[in-house]
Amino acid sequence: MNDNPFTGSARYVLDQELAKIVNISMVLEMPLLLKGEPGTGKTMLAHAIAETLRMQLIVLNVKSSMKLVEALYQYDTLTRLNDSRFGDSSRNVSNIKEYIKMGKIGQAFTSESRCVLLIDEIDKAETEFQDDMLDVLDQMQFDIIETDETVQAQQRPVIIITSNAKKDLSDPFLGRCNFHHIAFPEPKMMRNIIAVHFPQIDRKLAENAINTFYDLRNIEGVEKKPATRELINWLRALAADPDFHDGERLKKQIPYLGVLFKKSGDYQRSSSSLLKKRFF
Description:
Oligomer: single chain
Number of helices: 13
């Protein structure tokens, strides 16, 4: 088994099943695909792994229009053209290698020590990008066409891939990954998370805020439900307000809804007269 297992961090509460799949993925050297609604801690898990295991974190933020080569390397033809025209650069224009810059996957492959490679929101990419990327990660190498050389990974990175499940991933892609669905925390787990972030918080404030938070998440018709990060920011706001220092007033008034709800329709629903009647 892993000699240096990941057990969570000072600011990341890890359940047992997630800990197991993270560690077995590192042992098997397989990418770990994480799915779940936004705000469930998928991205932060990669940060926590890197911090705890003292590895460099390299983040590839996937865009819908991204081509795989952009994640591997970029050939700066424009700079080379300008250098050849004006001749005032210290670079050797005839040496194409001086105009090759590694992309995020390339950086992970050329890192001298093992790193964590976070491939964030893979579901934004086209299926061809997804499958071709997994080919590269399987082989741990890619070719630079312009220089006719092969980049071989120095160390196999710890690969974390996240998806918000907005688009189905291909069967070949899924077959090459381990998988874990991070469900939104139940109230008991949320209390543990809040205790980590706010060790000195008033217990009554935390309890009343968490209960109110889950009631607000259950409002019918809300498009973007508030996530853990919104709850944390909301608690910061409540703790800074003397009127809400113990949370009792939350039973009559719910302030700072703009911290929890970021879409106009959701904000209006949350502040509607029906909601007010429910809490007054």
